[in-house]
Write a structure and sequence with these properties.
Shape: elongated
Largest sheet: 8 strands, parallel, barrel
Organism: Knoellia flava
Strand order of the largest sheet: 8-9-10-12-15-16-17-20
Pfam families: AAA_33, Bac_luciferase
Number of helices: 19
Structural class: alpha/beta
Distance between the termini: 25 Å
Protein name: Luciferase-like domain-containing protein
Number of domains: 2
InterPro entries: Luciferase-like_dom, Luciferase-like_sf, P-loop_NTPase, SsuD_RutA_monooxygenase
GO molecular function: alkanesulfonate monooxygenase activity
CATH superfamily of the largest domain: Luciferase-like domain
Helix content: 40-55%
CATH class of the largest domain: Alpha Beta
Bound molecules: cytidine-5'-triphosphate, magnesium ion
CATH architecture of the largest domain: Alpha-Beta Barrel
CATH topology of the largest domain: TIM Barrel
């Protein structure tokens, strides 16, 4: 059972069918709005029917507020009132949220027994009517446009029948009798699957991209911890972000952001099999020949484990602050183009003069040379030029975006490959994936709330695919199926080695 998330989730079921229990098992308490709970809040208790109007007024306000913010809301009422359903559905649809109805097809005998065991049972005739209505409501729900899911039915054994006292402590019997729903990101429209590119000679792999360095008093210990944990988890490599000042998307300007080639040198000394490189080094910071020298040195020191990501650079502030020129966008892409060509020239065997398209060098005497072929990754999804540069000079491109965006970039890259006469499978597609990974639903949303800054929670969560490890793994599967060779996973709340261990299930492919 796959329930879209975020969504407006309407529970539909007779008294005692297990709605509230199910909601508590699958959603955060703040995501569930229950007419019974609100009756208790504004009235004398859950069964205070005189408090119904007040309770539903609040319930409607909650549904309005949460759907307007794009947040999941689980409506825990009987779900049998068509007028109320229509109003909630309209709220959700105007906010772009999917409308999901979860129908509790719990055997009548189970509901009756649970009801009878309650302090204030619903009259038997009322329960009988509810049970009849639930049986008939499915077609109505479908006609109203709800995506209908059914819980229970055949699977619910009378043995799951529990007295309030015994079951309220665990409330977990549903887990064994009904299929667990998986929350899935609400389906997006568009983008046909593109034909698949081979995912590089190495097969699909995941590397960790490090963009923040909260290393406290012991930088090297912190780095060692991250690297050993990443290696142990089975990540294929580490990529370091290359910036002169910490970027606002990641942290504060006074947070440490180390020079990556120096830092990679320290990582190269550790006993790991990790590939090591940058994602990405702006072509603006250093003359291309100096990048070639640094990467070749790293390759030699690490026994051939280096890769080099280069991009055009984008943040004016850090350039000004460090006295580094910041040309126009066109100028920077020109620099990237020339840098890629220079790297190729200086990493090639021999010392002969190089006369190329943008670059001429009187000699190419660059020792030490890389151990083998040193992978060059061209960062950026610019379709006219950046992907062209990747097709011309790169071993890989690096793009960011959801599956449909990535598929489109793959198509554009392929066209460039065809035009420059490069075999398509020679240029790997890599994706930078900045992801919020939680241990459970509550942990995930706590992280979103901590990280989102002034961005709306629902927007931040969607942008960073906030979810649990299994959901991220599945999402990566889709990327690999689309032809992606390497996913660079970045954790916006990476604090230390423990976070690497926490996402270890994403490492090995
Ligand atoms: N229960 C259970 N096993 C389940 C589901 C529910 O033992 N799989 C028990 C609950 O612990 C509770 C009772 O059955 O004591 C009714 O479940 P509840 O979730 O409260 O049902 P609702 O549909 O929410 O009932 P109501 O409409 O009365 O709120
Ligand atoms: Mg309930």
């Amino acid at each position: 059972m796959q329930i879209p998330d975020p969504a407006l989730v309407l529970l539909v079921g007779a008294a005692g069918s297990g709605k509230s229990t199910w909601a508590a098992e699958h959603y955060r308490p703040t995501e569930v709005v229950s007419s019974d709970a609100l009756r208790a809040l504004v009235g004398s208790g859950t069964a205070d029917l005189d408090a119904s109007n007040d309770a539903f007024e609040i319930l409607d306000r909650v549904v309005t507020g949460r759907s307007r913010r794009g947040l999941t809301v689980v409506v825990d009422t009987l779900g049998l009132d068509a007028q109320r359903r229509a109003a909630w559905a309209a709220l959700a649809r105007s906010a772009g949220l999917p409308t999901v109805a979860v129908v509790f097809d719990t055997p009548a005998a189970v509901c009756r027994a649970r009801n009878a065991a309650r302090d204030r049972p619903v009259p038997a005739s009322v329960l009988g009517t509810q049970l009849q209505r639930v049986r008939d409501v499915r077609t109505e729900l479908e006609a109203e446009g709800w995506e209908v899911h059914v819980v229970g039915g055949e699977a619910s054994e009378p043995s799951s029948l529990g007295s309030p006292a015994s079951s309220s402590s665990t409330g977990s019997s549903a887990a064994t009798t009904t299929p667990l729903p998986t929350m899935v990101k609400a389906a997006k429209t568009g983008a046909q699957p593109s034909p698949v590119l081979p995912s590089g000679a190495h097969g699909p792999r995941v590397m960790l991209q490090i963009s923040r360095f909260p290393w406290g008093e012991h930088p090297l210990d912190w780095l060692r911890g991250i690297a050993l944990a990443a290696d142990e988890a089975g990540f294929a490599g580490l990529a370091l972000m290359d910036h002169l000042i910490q970027i606002p998307q990641v942290g504060r300007a006074w947070d440490p952001i180390p020079e990556p080639w120096v830092t990679l040198g320290a990582l190269a000394a550790l006993p790991t099999d990790l590939l090591l490189g940058t994602l990405c080094t702006p072509a603006t910071y250093r003359p291309a020949g100096i990048i070639a020298k640094a990467a070749a040195t790293l390759d030699v020191l690490s026994g051939g484990r280096a890769f080099c990501g280069v991009g055009a650079g984008w943040w004016e502030r850090e350039h000004s602050a460090f006295g580094v020129g910041f040309p126009s966008t066109t100028g920077r892409v020109d620099e990237l183009d020339a840098a890629a060509e220079t790297l190729r020239a200086l990493w090639a065997p021999g010392t002969k003069a190089y006369n190329g398209e943008r670059v001429s060098l009187p000699e190419t005497t660059c020792y030490p040379r890389p151990v083998g072929s040193l992978p060059l990754i061209i960062g950026g999804g610019g379709e006219q030029r950046t992907l062209r540069i990747a097709a011309t000079w790169g071993d890989a491109c690096n793009v960011q975006g959801d599956l449909d965006v990535v598929r489109h970039k793959i198509d554009v890259l392929r066209r460039h490959c065809d035009e420059v006469g490069r075999p398509r499978d020679e240029v790997e597609v890599t994706v930078l994936d900045v992801a919020v990974v939680g241990s459970d639903r509550d942990d995930t949303w706590t992280r979103v709330e901590r990280l989102r800054g002034r961005t709306k929670a629902a927007v931040y969560a969607a942008r960073h695919h906030a979810g649990e490890v299994a959901a991220h793994r599945e999402r990566h599967d889709r990327l690999f199926e689309a032809g992606v060779g390497t996913v660079f996973l970045a954790l916006p709340d990476l604090a230390g080695a423990r976070d690497v261990e926490r996402v270890a299930a994403l490492a090995r492919r």
